[in-house]
Design goal:
Layout: H1 15-19, E1 22-24, H2 47-51, H3 64-67, E2 69-71, H4 74-78, E3 97-105, E4 116-121, E5 146-150, E6 156-162, E7 167-168, E8 176-177, E9 181-185, E10 194-200, H5 210-213, H6 217-220, E11 224-227, E12 238-241, E13 244-245
Parallel strand pairs: 3-12, 3-13, 10-11
Antiparallel strand pairs: 1-2, 3-6, 4-5, 4-9, 7-8, 9-10, 11-12
Length: 258
């Protein structure tokens, strides 16, 4: 499902904002863990049969374009963060409140500070606030399901939202997607760009889902948020921990590389 209209746009940045972009660079980036990434062609995930490339990808050498990018300028470019998806409307949304928190790390295990995370998800009934989602589940007028976060100086983030519901997706007979949250990260540069999704510990649909199954078994656990009682807020929300690693041997798998 494509992201709905998010609560900000980089295109609204003024020329003065653009001048404030700080450029960072690195001599090289460690490659992502290729054995942890889903293949471009995975027949059980039927749409990859139609859109997977017919030829092997061509690797592009790292240049200034790939190893530089905005740093510490996201809020000036896009406006304030929208990290609590339960307070974007007049009323409270329906569903189980959750808090998801963790760290964003680079290929060496170092925190990635002040970097942008975009999130989008279905509501508690498993429906997106998106014109193309027309399955028979109710929309929630108090839940849009889209937001943005900026990590702190230690690479930490915190999201308050509603646990999304499962939904049918037509890949095969009686196919249902597990509960998941989509995440898009820019990291420090284009070379660390990541679009992925997070599942939830204990969901039986994960084992039945071709998208999740396309990720090699040894790396699939990197996409699962773990319940954490310490993060759970009494009488308010369940807590889940989900760390994200950009590139390197412990990299978080992408959601769909095709």
């Amino acid at each position: 499902m494509s992201p709905p209209e998010l609560c900000f746009s980089l295109h609204t940045a003024t020329p003065r904002d653009m001048l404030r972009i700080q450029m960072i660079s690195a001599s090289r980036y460690v490659a992502e863990d290729e054995e942890a990434q889903p293949p471009l062609l995975f027949p059980p995930y039927r749409s990859t049969v139609l859109r997977a490339p017919k030829r092997p990808p061509v690797r592009i050498p790292q240049t200034l374009t790939e190893i530089t990018g905005p740093a510490s300028a996201w809020e000036s470019l896009g406006g304030p963060a929208c990290s609590d998806l339960t307070k974007q409307h007049a009323g409270a949304p329906l569903g189980q409140r959750i808090v998801m928190a963790g760290r964003v790390l680079d290929e060496a295990g170092r925190p990635v500070p002040r970097t942008l995370i975009e999130v989008w998800q279905a509501n508690a009934a498993g429906r997106y606030a998106h014109a193309k989602d027309q399955w028979d589940a109710p929309l929630d007028p108090n839940f849009t399901g889209a937001g943005r976060l900026v990590t702190d100086d230690e690479g930490r983030y915190r999201l308050t939202t509603i646990r999304p519901g499962a939904y049918p997706w037509g890949n095969h007979d009686n196919a249902w997607r597990p509960a998941h949250i989509h995440l898009s990260l820019f990291g420090a540069a284009f070379a660390s760009r990541l679009v992925t999704q997070c599942y939830f510990e204990g969901d039986p649909l994960i084992a039945l889902d071709p998208i999740a199954a396309s990720v090699p078994e040894g790396a699939r656990e990197r996409l699962i948020a773990r319940f954490d009682l310490g993060l759970t807020e009494p009488s308010f929300a369940l807590g889940y921990v989900f760390d994200i690693v950009l590139r390197g041997p412990a990299s978080t798998p992408t959601e769909d590389p095709a």
